[in-house]
User: Fold 2-nitropropane dioxygenase, NPD from Brevundimonas abyssalis TAR-001.
Amino acid sequence: MSSAFPQSMRLPVIAAPMFLVSGPELVIAACKAGIGGAFPTPNCRTPRIWTAGWTRSQARLSPADGPWIANLITHSTNPRLADDLAMVARYKPPIVITALGSPKPVMETVKGYGGMVFADVVNMKLARKAAEAGVDGLACISAGAGGHTGHLSPFAFVSAVREFFDGYLTIGGGIADGAGVAGAIAAGADMVYMGTRFLATRESLAQDAYKQMVVDCDADDLIVSPAVTGTDASWLKPSLKAAGLDPDAMGGAIQRDYSGGQSTKRWKDIWAAGQGVGRIELWSPPPRWWRGWSANTARRPTASSD
Assistant:
């Protein structure tokens, strides 16, 4: 890390923003555990839900907790970006992470209140563009990540990015335990994304059947395909089969749609996970490296394996 991170964090971990999965309870639990808690703004379907949910949420957090993080879709198909930016300006999340588009549309708003901008990037071209835009950090989405995924090795990715970027680096891609965290930090990252680790937790908004599938599956039960959303994403094969799709004959990519409209149904009925899925077990004790995470004590499928 180029300088001391200005936010309070007990571990260098961000609970990654997951569409239709990350909500206020998961974000708050993450922050209370001393890590970053991120949510995609489309999970709050309207500005009114923003107001109701995050007014209460901010009241439950203290300066000693980890940072809460807003994740904005900046792709041209997102018609609510202006409304989301208005909410960001109102509630002032310490960190805003952009995804599926340039970070430029959010820079003035977030920098205006003293926040930091990170950009999700999946390749070197996007990493360079985001760095040139003046972001404070990059979230390097690598091979093994759940949902919209990358193809580069996390170790090769962070090493290459460090050649031209000295800001904060977060790496995501199959990291599900303390060994993965340690490896990422040793490779030159400052923090890691963990998404699949928290899919089956008590605070997750995922359906119970989704949580159980995460517990039951391993990395061989995944397939990367653009055929669901138009962008390569890592899907659980059993959910594709349940939706009447053949994982071995997915066909070509559909038209991209990040508006939260038709894609909502896709993500609701077809479920994503990363390559760390095999590390998620049922009713295990909290891992030694993660004492204090409240979801580990839930008497239901939890993301608590060591």
